[in-house]
């Protein structure tokens, strides 16, 4: 369970942001390429420096160590990184249920990373992130490399997951349809400002 | 033990060989004669100057003068390490990481050798200190340069992997561990190869010099063994320090990967 609160949070390219994501709530963020969406998510995950306050369940970020914060505020980047040869070596405890939900065979953990397609990479990196039990999810184009059927499965999985675990989700997406399907609130970035989407 | 003294004429004969080589280069249009002659000239000037400085220091062996020369050698070596980096740390760190590591390793190993092993009297006597320190610096310099270059290049190229680990809650230390280990290995391989080949493939320069100067071969061997072992240890400690400091510098206090602390890539 996790809520995320931003107070005058100042990420690169953007004006300071005040934002609150309740536990179990999903908000989306859209905007032109290069408007600072990814950089905002990176700053929230504490991968890039930023000014201002952000807290998890009303606990300020500075009270967490950086690794603690990042494992609780889970970031899914559009391009996933893999540092070992075998997929399974990147997981703490691979959950068979998650593989099933995204229609990946259970022996996918034995696959070689170098032979994964971009869609497989994307789904596996989502499973890897969820296995880490984050309390907040920051998703950057989580379905960019997926076809319609797989996109639907990922959306359903994330919806169920936030329901079950009451995680807050901030989802960067280009797709206006997806925005409507998955979120309670949508934001558009316009000249450095967050504006409510119609 | 009679040392045959070399006259300027002797050196001139050797020099004509290099000039002849330059003429061949010119004739075959290799385009390298200019560089060759300048490099040869530098050798003559630099080594003559070194000889003069050492001659002066042998007479005037004031500790302050000796340490001034030692620091000068350290800074030149530090500059050389920096110049060999394709992506160097920006600011003072570019020069600092390598120089500090060489200071830690070369100086401590040299001082240990002088005080405990060789037991020169006084321990800072120029005849032992300067050649020893020179050999240490020259060799640790290459090891550190290779290791640091490997570290920064790989951190740059494997950014995605490092950040993927950070995102999943790994500490900076875990996230850079593999890259750091590889960097250190790359820095140590040359000296390991040199030790393995010593005496079989190559006759080390210092031993050659001592034999020419009339030292009994077995004594020269012992000195060479000592030097090789000291160099290996010095290079190892120096590269370890450099890679450790460098890896730490790649992350900030919130364990973020800060590649912006590296400068632009150089050819």
Named CATH architecture of chain A: 3-Layer(aba) Sandwich
Approximately how much helix is present in the residues of chain A?
Answer: 25-40%
State the end-to-end distance of chain B: 49 Å
CATH fold-level name of chain A: Rossmann fold
In total, how many domains does the architecture of chain B comprise?
2
What are the low-pLDDT stretches of chain B, counting only 5+ consecutive residues below 50? none
N-to-C span of chain A: 29 Å
Poorly predicted regions of chain A are none
The radius of gyration over CA of chain B amounts to 22 Å
Number of strands of chain A: 10
Q: Kindly report the spatial arrangement of strands forming the biggest sheet of chain A.
A: 6-7-8-3-9-10
Our count of domains of chain A comes out at: 1
Strand content of chain A: 15-25%
Content of β-strand of chain B: under 5%
Number of helices of chain B: 9
Major pleated sheet of chain B: none
Q: Could you please describe the fold and organization of this structure?
A:
Chain A: One of its GO terms (molecular function) is ATP hydrolysis activity. The complex is a heterodimer of chains A (198) and B (267). Chain A has 198 residues and is α/β, with parallel strands linked by helices. Chain A contains six helices and ten strands. Chain A has one domain (4-196): P-loop containing nucleotide triphosphate hydrolases (Rossmann fold, 3-Layer(aba) Sandwich), CATH 3.40.50.300. In chain A, a hairpin with a 6-residue loop joins β1 and β2. The relative contact order of chain A is 0.22. Chain B folds into two domains: 1-60, no CATH class; 62-261, no CATH class. Chain B has helices at residues 8-27, 33-59, 63-83, 92-118, 126-157, 159-167, 172-197, 205-212, 217-249. Chains A and B meet through α2 and α4 of A and α6 of B.
């Amino acid at each position: 369970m996790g809520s995320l609160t931003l107070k005058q949070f100042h990420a690169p390219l953007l004006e300071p942001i005040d934002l609150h994501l309740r536990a179990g709530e999903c908000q989306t963020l859209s905007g032109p390429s290069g408007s600072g969406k990814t950089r905002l998510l990176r700053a929230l995950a504490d991968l890039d420096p930023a000014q201002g306050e952000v807290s998890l369940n009303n606990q300020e970020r500075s009270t967490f160590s950086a690794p603690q914060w990042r494992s609780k505020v889970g970031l899914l980047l559009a391009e996933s990184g893999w540092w070992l040869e075998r997929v399974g070596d990147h997981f703490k405890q691979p959950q068979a249920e998650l593989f099933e939900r995204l229609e990946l065979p259970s022996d996918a953990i034995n696959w070689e990373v170098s032979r994964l397609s971009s869609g497989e990479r994307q789904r596996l990196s989502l499973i890897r992130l969820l296995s880490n039990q984050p309390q907040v999810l920051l998703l950057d184009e989580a379905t960019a490399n997926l076809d319609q059927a797989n996109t639907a499965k990922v959306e359903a999985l994330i919806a169920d997951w936030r329901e079950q675990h009451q995680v807050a989700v901030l989802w960067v997406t280009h797709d206006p349809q997806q925005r409507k399907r998955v979120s309670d609130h949508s934001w558009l970035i316009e000249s450095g400002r967050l504006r409510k989407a119609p | 033990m009679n040392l045959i003294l070399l006259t300027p004429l002797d050196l001139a004969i050797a020099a004509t060989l290099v000039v002849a080589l330059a003429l061949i280069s010119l004739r075959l249009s290799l385009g390298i004669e200019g560089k060759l002659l300048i490099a040869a000239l530098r050798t003559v000037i630099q080594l003559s100057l070194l000889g003069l400085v050492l001659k002066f220091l042998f007479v005037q062996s004031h500790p302050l003068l000796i340490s001034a020369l030692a620091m000068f050698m350290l800074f030149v070596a530090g500059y050389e390490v920096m110049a060999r980096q394709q992506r160097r740390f920006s600011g003072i760190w570019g020069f600092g990481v390598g120089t500090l590591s060489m200071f830690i390793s070369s100086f401590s190993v040299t001082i240990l050798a002088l005080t405990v092993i060789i037991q020169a009297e006084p321990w800072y006597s120029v005849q032992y200190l300067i050649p020893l320190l020179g050999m240490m610096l020259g060799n640790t310099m290459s090891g550190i340069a290779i290791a640091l270059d490997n570290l920064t290049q790989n951190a740059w190229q494997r950014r995605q992997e490092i950040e993927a680990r950070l995102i999943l809650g790994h500490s900076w230390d875990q996230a850079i561990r593999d890259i750091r280990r590889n960097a250190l290995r790359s820095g140590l391989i040359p000296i390991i190869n040199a030790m393995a080949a010593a005496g079989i493939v190559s006759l080390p320069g210092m031993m050659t010099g001592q034999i020419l100067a009339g030292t009994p071969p077995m004594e020269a061997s012992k000195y060479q063994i000592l030097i090789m072992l000291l160099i290996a240890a010095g290079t190892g400690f120096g590269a370890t320090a450099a890679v450790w400091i460098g890896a730490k510098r790649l992350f900030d206090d919130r364990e973020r990967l800060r590649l912006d602390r590296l400068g632009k890539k150089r050819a």
